[in-house]
What does this fold into?
Amino acid sequence: MKTLKRLLVTGASGLLGFNICRLQREHWQIFGVAHSHDINSQGVVLLRADLTQWEEARRIFTVAKPHAVIHAAAASDPHFCQLNPRISFLVNVEASRNIARLCAEYGAACVFTSSDLVFDGQKAPYAEDAPVTPVSLYGEQKAKAEEVMLGLYPPTVVCRMPLMFGEPGPAAKSFLQPMMAAMREHRTLQLFVDEFRTPVCAESAVQGLMLALTLQKGGRLHLGGRERISRYGFGVLLMSHLRRFDALLVPSRQTDVKLAAPRPADVSLNSSKAFAVGYAPFSLRDSLARLFPGVNASEAD
It folds into this structure.
């Protein structure tokens, strides 16, 4: 039997980390790092650690001895970060510093998941060499973490991720699940018509990240989808797929809703660099069809 290479996945109980573990466990020996939640993924070795603490981060590397690392752990809610700057800085920046130092020590292939929110939304679509101009504290922290990771370990591939949806992890849902719940319960869904992203399903995101691990040199790579769409547009697409034609979708504008973190208008990513090396995200319609095959109104519950 072939011995599998060892992959360390941080943030393994979150949406992206959980899906990496779920989809790659037959191809890698996976060590999933979580702070307090379970992973609930058969065949994955669970390691508990607070990655903001150097000795705890070092311990998981000592145990896993990884050939490769995907650093997906983050405080990823922009509103939480805006209201909790100290805690979120530790998670988003200091933990990344620890991971970069250890990847350098072990010589492990390293992928770091950043965000499209490092941009201000004024000059989309954004290519990898576009200046970073974050408008939120979360965006600032991810931009800083990019610099830290690449500065300490230049072979790191920084993958800027778009809005993602898919199979929920044990500790994190995507924006899809609350949308579905509101449709099922006939609650009003107030969705922005003036906020645009290039979303992908988690399955496509994982494909892109695994591709990034094979790249021969570090740098930045955008893993957006091929379609630019607003929140409202996505709601209409989801409503149509689930056949929830009684859904109460209300078009709104960013100025209609008071939120803790500022929101950029259009952080669509130009991902042509990734497309050229084999990244092939599913269309939004195909993504929903894969998530909900043969769905009807009752199955959408």
In short: The CA atoms of residues 197 and 268 lie 5 Å apart. The chain has ten helices and 13 strands.
